[in-house]
Amino acid sequence: MTLMATHSPKHFNWRMAGSVAIIQLSRPERKNPLTFESYAELRDTFRDLVYADDINAVVFSSNGGNFCSGGDVHEIIGPLVNMEMKELLAFTRMTGDLVKAMINCGKPIIAAIDGICVGAGAIIAMASDIRFATSSAKTAFLFTRVGLAGCDMGACAMLPRIIGQGRAAELLYSGRSMGADEGHMWGFYNRIVDADSLESEAIEFAQKLASGPTFAHGITKTQLNAEWSMGLEQAIEAEAQAQAICMQTRDFERAYLAFVAKQKPEFKGD
After folding, report:
1. Rounded to an integer, what distance in angstroms lies between the CA atom of residue 119 and that of residue 179?
2. Spatial distance between the Cα atoms of 180 and 229, rounded to a whole number of angstroms
3. Nearest in space to 105 (alpha carbons), one of 194, 258, 224, 234
4. pLDDT in tens, 170-226
5. What is the pTM of this model?
6. What are phi and psi of 13, to 5 degrees?
7. What does the alpha-carbon distance between residue 46 and residue 71 come to, in Å, rounded to a whole number?
8. DSSP labels, 62-75
9. Which member of 109, 131, 187, 240 has the lowest number of beta carbons within 10 Å of its beta carbon?
10. What does the alpha-carbon distance between residue 11 and residue 145 come to, in Å, rounded to a whole number?
């Protein structure tokens, strides 16, 4: 299916750089908050990416010097206060479905984080595969600061796997901000880059992935997430089966023939 390159969302910015999709939240004057509508449209977009043969990687970028300020105070937080349990659970399940869709989209996601990255914005960064940040990046899982638990959208499962249990516990209990140097030292940020080159470096990295064996990249993403709940022996067997599948691809054959010919392989994702 090759429909996603012409995708036209209503509630966030979308553009293409080759086979890389670039997403930006679209209200920089408010530090890019999420709304009910943008949550749902992002969820549906990442779900559709599973079937998009024309997109091989995604960059979730910043806009106007900030990544995302979380749920909009007036458009989400205010209405939530007046909702009943059934409506509240429908909302929290929807936000969790966005994370599930990112995990299961089959494409590597690179978050390019500048400035404010808090609340649900921090969750989007966490749910990405790779995170580039500027020196002014400030990430906070600030749910306790608004009277909620730190266990939002999978944070208690995912964040400890990225930075460790004790560090995750501190951030989730306190809601404090994690700066660029600390986040890089802890392994949350993969790379610290200059603000003026943040997006271009993220896109360049994504394009390198997109020019690689994209079917195999999808298998890697699947296994990285599926093996969370596996024992070691189960994981080794799952990887044996996954790798045997990849050995049937034409990209595997192309790599071998290129090696024999002392050439660089040209992967096509099949």
Report:
1. 15
2. 30
3. 224
4. 999 999 999 999 999 999 999 999 999 999 999 999 999 999 999 999 999 999 999
5. 0.95
6. -85, 145
7. 19
8. -BTTBSB--B-III
9. 240
10. 27
